[in-house]
Design goal:
Elements lengths: L6 H19 L3 H8 L3 H8 L7 H10 L5 H14 L14 H9 L2 E6 L10 H11 L5 H14 L1 H4 L6 E7 H5 L5 H14 L5 E6 L13 E5 L8 E4 L6 E3 L2 H17 L3 H16 L1
Parallel strand pairs: 1-2, 2-3
Antiparallel strand pairs: 1-4, 4-5, 5-6
C-alpha cells in the first residue's frame, strides 16, 4: 500500500460515490437495504464512511445500482480495498477518536475553537500528560503514555510535514488560566504556544474574558477542510462517549460563520502573543 493512502479518507470518498450512485438510481437507503437484506443503518454507515466496506459490499451495491462499466466497479473495489488498510494510528492500539485522526492526517486546514484547554496540536508533552491524567483519572499509566505519543505524532503535521497543516486556533482565556499540572508547567506551555504561533502556517488568537458572550459559548469544535475538492469539509464535535461529525453543507456553513465571528471578536495575532506572554510571566512569579 502506498504510504499516502489514508483509509479514513478513502472510506469517505467511497461512501460519497456510493451515495451518488444510489441517488442516480432514484432509490432510498431503505429500498437498497431491503434489496440486500441488510439494515438501513448499515447502508447509512457505509455512505457516511463511518465503517469499513468490503469489496463484496461494493459488488452487491453496484449490482443493485446497475453499474455496468467495469472500470467504475474496479475503481470502487480498489477504494474498498484501500479503505480496509490501517493508518499509522492503528499501531498505537485502540484510539477512541481514530476517525478524527484519520481526517486530520489528510486535512489541508484546521480551524479549532477551544474554551477550556490548549489545542492538542499545540501542547507540550508535559501538558498533554497532565491533562490526560486529570481528565481520565482511572486511565492506566501505559494508556496515558500511549495517548501522549499519539498526540505528539499528530503534531508532525505542523512541525515536519512537507505540506504542513494550516492551523487556525481561537483559544479562550480560560485555557490559559486553568492550571494543568503546576505553574511551572503552565509557564512552559504558554511559552511554547507563543513560539508555535510564530510558524507561518499557524495562527493563534485569544478570546479574553471581557469579550463576554460569543458564538463559541456552547463549547469546543473544529472545522477540517481537505485539499481534494471531492472531499467535503467536516465539523468535528468531541463527546465523552461518542463524537459528532457534521458534513452537510448547511451545517458546515453555520459553524464557519460562527468561527468568523469568533475570529473577529478575538484579539489580533500580535495582541494575542503579548496576552499569552504576560500570563506566562505571571506563572513565573
Amino acid at each position: 500500500m502506498a504510504s499516502n493512502v489514508n483509509p479514513t479518507v478513502r472510506r469517505r470518498r467511497l461512501g460519497q460515490e456510493l451515495r451518488r450512485l444510489r441517488e442516480l438510481k432514484g432509490m432510498t437507503a431503505e429500498e437498497v437495504a431491503e434489496r440486500l437484506l441488510v439494515s438501513q443503518s448499515k447502508i447509512s454507515r457505509l455512505e457516511n464512511g463511518r465503517r469499513s466496506i468490503s469489496q463484496r459490499d461494493v459488488r452487491d451495491l453496484c449490482g443493485v445500482y446497475d453499474v455496468e462499466d467495469h472500470r467504475i466497479v474496479d475503481s470502487l473495489m480498489q477504494m474498498a480495498k484501500d479503505s480496509r488498510q490501517q493508518g499509522w494510528w492503528h499501531a498505537f492500539g485502540d484510539i477512541p477518536y481514530s476517525v478524527y485522526i484519520g481526517l486530520e492526517t489528510d486535512a489541508a486546514s484546521l480551524r479549532v475553537y477551544d474554551p477550556q484547554i490548549v489545542p492538542g496540536l499545540l501542547q507540550t508533552p508535559q501538558y498533554a500528560e497532565a491533562l490526560i491524567t486529570g481528565a481520565l483519572p482511572e486511565t492506566a499509566v501505559s494508556d496515558v503514555e500511549k495517548r501522549v505519543n499519539v498526540r505528539l505524532r499528530r503534531q508532525e503535521r505542523i512541525l515536519t510535514a512537507d505540506q504542513p497543516l494550516r492551523l487556525w486556533a481561537v483559544i479562550d482565556e480560560a485555557a490559559l488560566r486553568r492550571v494543568v499540572g503546576d505553574r511551572q508547567l503552565m509557564r512552559e506551555q504558554l511559552e511554547h504556544l507563543v513560539e508555535q504561533s510564530q510558524l507561518p502556517h499557524v495562527t493563534v488568537q485569544i478570546l479574553p474574558f471581557d469579550m463576554g458572550a460569543h458564538p463559541g459559548i456552547s463549547g469546543h469544535y473544529a472545522i477540517l477542510e481537505f485539499p481534494d475538492a471531492a472531499d467535503s469539509s467536516v465539523v468535528y464535535i468531541e463527546g465523552v462517549t461518542s463524537d459528532l461529525y457534521l458534513e452537510k453543507a448547511n451545517d458546515v456553513q453555520k459553524y464557519s460563520v460562527m468561527y468568523e465571528h469568533l475570529r473577529a471578536q478575538a484579539l489580533n495575532v500580535e495582541a494575542s502573543r503579548h496576552f499569552i506572554a504576560n500570563i506566562a510571566k505571571e506563572y513565573a512569579r
